[in-house]
Amino acid sequence: MTKIGEMPYLNSEIFYLNKLPHFDYLKLIPKKMGIAIKDKKINAGPISLIDYLNQTNLRQLDNYCVATKNSANSVFVFSQKKINDITSVSVTNQTSTSVILLKVLNNFFWKNKNLKVRSSHYKSDSRLIIGDDALKESYFNKNYTYKYDLGLEWHKNTGLPFVFAVWAYNSMNEKDFINLGIRSYKKGLCDLGNNSYAYLQPDGGWGWSNAGLICDGDESLIVDTLFDENLTNEMLGVMEKAEPLAFKNIVALVNSHSNGDHCNGNNCVNTEVIISSESSLEEMHHESPEMMAGLLLQAPNMGKLGEYFTQCFGDFDFAGVTRKLPNTTFNKETTKKVGDKVVELYEVGPAHTNGDVIAYVPNDRVVYTGDILFIEGHPILWAGPVSNWIDACKRIIALDVESVVPGHGPVTDKRGVRAVQEYLSYIHDEAKTRYDNGMKAEEACKDIDLSAFSSWGDPERIAVNINSLYREFRGEQEREDVALLFTQMSELIDQKG
User: Fold this and answer.
1) Among 197, 280, 281, 443, which has the minimal tally of Cβ within 10 Å of its Cβ?
2) How far is Cα 239 from Cα 403, in angstroms, rounded to an integer?
3) β-pair type (219-223, 211-216)
4) What is the rounded radius of gyration, in angstroms, for the C-alpha atoms of the chain?
5) Average pLDDT in the chain
6) In sequence order, which residues have a C-beta less than 8 Å from that of residue 51 and are 6 or more positions away?
7) Domains of the chain
8) What are the distances in angstroms from CA 42 to CA 77, 151, 363?
9) Separation between Cα atoms, residue 447 and residue 466, nearest integer Å
């Protein structure tokens, strides 16, 4: 079970209002919190800033922190003397950051050369106290003439806020990465509210992608089509039944990226405007349903590779696809109106592919991510660099969204985005260690422990991911032959039985 450090102070209670049942919460003062996460006795928590900066293995959880813009109201120096007359301060043993802050304030601003910082068991004319003890001393005891709020003192002298602790983590448990969906995951249209929808295709594995429908008044916009025309026509029929008026006027179709399971059904959509990033359109010229159909015909003669290829793609009718490419492209970002709604399109690739696009609907607090997100399935890094993909996750997290529609898997929230981000950071770090030690890519993909993600589908994709990461580490641009990558994935499947 994943262990979360719980700060035992009143000002931290807001972090723990909705405790998750599969987490174990341990109450620890800041000093012990830093020791516990270093010794891996906890997996995450609000870590004292000094401890966070001193531990290179920690990752920050978004931008959550314990901070103050001016007054902290719970970090005080209590004294019988004015700050310039203090000779000694006995400091609490509960924190490192506040002690360092005290020393910085004195060295740079107060410049009291006589001030000595001493441990709490020494007798001094002043005391540094934090947390609930500071609150009690401030409001109930009147033993001191002066009190100095260190947060306020920092702000007065710098004009800046001060961060006492950051939420950080070192590792997660398998249970953190399961049940990431927030709505029922079944085939068909999922109502996200305010006339926005996700069309879902369980189980989200190879080719079983999602799409989106955004409506307002008598207009609609579709995000992505499916892997073949039969599936796409079925989807469009369901969409029309749900929104008959808006469906008559499809103002645009957006392709999130170049993979066929997100654009092969374009010809079925009655619209004059098909939008993609410029890079996606370029990439589409090198991918074709005809090629997929041909490979499936050859699959019986291709041994284990053919069996694997058929397992992944044998359910789709590529021969029946008539290609229709985007006719409107953009770079970086653009917008499209649907009724009174604005759909914001952001190019976040190259990541999964060269030209990945997310579609954000601020009015509905919904974002459609394409294959930037595989939820409860292993992502696949065709293009990279991985840093772009991690940045794309951060960008999604920064949006004001309630529903996150992935390219594959159940509708999620920011928890699902963070899980994908964690996966990408993890495999990058693990791959880099093995690359630096001279381990070959094919050995590395077998050596990396993926047990934390054991509930996710298609783990063999690690072969593609490690290959892409190694290529990135070598500074190479040209991708490995796709047939070879599928061969490596099929071998991993075969080895695991």
Assistant:
1) 443
2) 19
3) antiparallel
4) 27
5) 92
6) 30, 33, 34, 37, 38, 96, 97
7) 2-56 (no CATH), 75-168 (3.40.190.10), 182-495 (3.60.15.10)
8) 31, 28, 39
9) 11
Q: Which tokens belong to 418?
A: 């963070």
State both tokens at 337.
Answer: 């109106």
Q: Taking the CB of residue 440, how many other CB atoms lie within 10 A of it? A: 12
In the predicted model, what is the mean pLDDT of residues 470-491? Answer: 90
Selected residue with higher pLDDT from 178 and 222: 222
Q: What is the average pLDDT across 112-121?
A: 84
Those residues whose C-beta lies under 8 Å from the C-beta of residue 491, and which sit 6 or more positions away, are 304, 463
Q: In what order do the strands lie in the sheet with 341-347?
A: 333-338, 341-347, 357-361, 366-368, 403-405
Residue 227 in contact with residue 260, Cβ under 8 Å?
yes
Judge whether 358 and 346 are in contact, CB under 8 Å. yes
Q: pLDDT tens digit string along 118-170?
A: 886 667 889 999 988 888 888 886 778 899 999 999 999 999 999 999 998 88
Alpha helices in 289-338 (DSSP H): 289-298, 303-313
Torsion of CA 57, 58, 60, 64, to 10 degrees: -170
Pairing state of beta strands 146-149 and 188-193?
Answer: unpaired
Residues facing 188 on adjacent strands? 200
CA 275 remoteness from chain centre: 25
